[in-house]
Amino acid sequence: PAEDSYLILDTLASETEATFLTQRFGHSSSHSGLSASPLVLEVGTGSGVVLAFVTAHAQNILGRPDVLSLGIDVNPFACVATEETVQEACRYNHALDKRAEQRLDSGILLASINGDLEAPIRPGSVDILIFNPPYVPTPGPLPCSPISRDDGRPICLDEDTEFEVGSQLLALSYSGGKDGMEITSRFLERIPQVLNPTRGVAYVLLCQQNRPAEIIDSIKQWGHGWIADVVGKSGKAGGWEKLRIIRIYRDPP
Questions:
Q1: Quick check: helix, strand or coil at residue 99?
Q2: How many CB atoms lie within 10 A of CB 206?
C-alpha cells in the first residue's frame, strides 16, 4: 500500500466521514430502505487493504457490522491477494473481539472478482463505491490485461513470460492515459447507474493533474441532486501528485 491507499483509509476513518456514513446507513437513520445490509464495492482493489479495512471495521465506519463487501480488479493476482487480505483482517478483528469489552464485529466478503471496472455488478445495487484509479498521465494507448481467468485464481507462468506479464500488470495499476483521466472518465460516467439510487455514495481518488475542481463542477451538472465534495487531501506541496478524495452522492428525497 502507498500514500493514496492510506489517504483513503484516513478519510473513511475520520470523524466527519464516519458521522456521514453512520447517518446514511446506521440502523437508526430515518431514510427509507436502510434495513438491508449495505453493499460495499471497491474497484481496483490491488492488495485489498482498503476493502479489508472497511469490512473489518464496519461497525466503526458505518455504525453497523452487517456489511457485505465485493472487490473487482482487472489483475487476477490482485483478486487473490484481496481475498487473503480481507480474510486476515477479519480474523484479526475476531481475535481482538475475544479480549475487548466492546464487540468488534466484521462484515462479510462476498467475492473478489476478476473484471473490468464495475461491469460484473447489477445496476443500482452498490451502496458504497470506492475507486483508487490509475491516475498517472501516460502517453499512447492504455495497456490491456495480458491474462484473464474466470475463477480469479493465479495463473502459472513460465520464466520467459513472467517478467513481461508482470510489467504489463504493473502498468495497468498506474496508467491513466491522457491527463490520467481515461479510466476515471469511463468510471465517473457509470456512477449514477451503479449506485443505489436512494443512499448510494462513491469515493474517488484524484491527483492534481486530473483537474479535480473541473470534475466536481461537471458532476454537479449531472442534475437530479448530485453532489461532489472534497473530503480528503494529501500530497506533495511542490509536486503535481497532490491527492484529493471526492465524495459523490445524492441527498435522499
A1: helix
A2: 26
For residue 13, give the H/E element and its range.
helix 3-13
Please state whether beta strands 242-250 and 226-235 pair in parallel, antiparallel, or not at all (unpaired).
antiparallel
What percent of the chain is helix, strand and coil (3-state, nearest 5)?
A: 40, 20, 40
Cβ atoms within 10 Å of 252's Cβ, excluding its own: 16
The residues, any chain, with a CB within 8 Å of residue 66's CB and separated by 6 or more, are 37, 38, 58, 107
Q: How many angstroms separate the first and last alpha carbons of the chain? A: 38
Helix residue spans in 14-158 (DSSP H)? 15-25, 49-56, 58-62, 76-99
What's residue 114's pLDDT? 86
Q: Residue 236 pLDDT more than 80?
A: no
What DSSP character marks residue 178? G
Model pTM?
A: 0.81
Distance CA 188, CA 203 (A): 11
Under the phi-then-psi rule, with left for phi > 0, alpha for psi from -120 to 50, and beta for the rest, what region is 2? beta
CA dist., res. 111 & res. 76, Å (int): 13
Residue type, 194: V
Distance CA 112, CA 123 (A): 18
d(CA 112, CA 100): 30
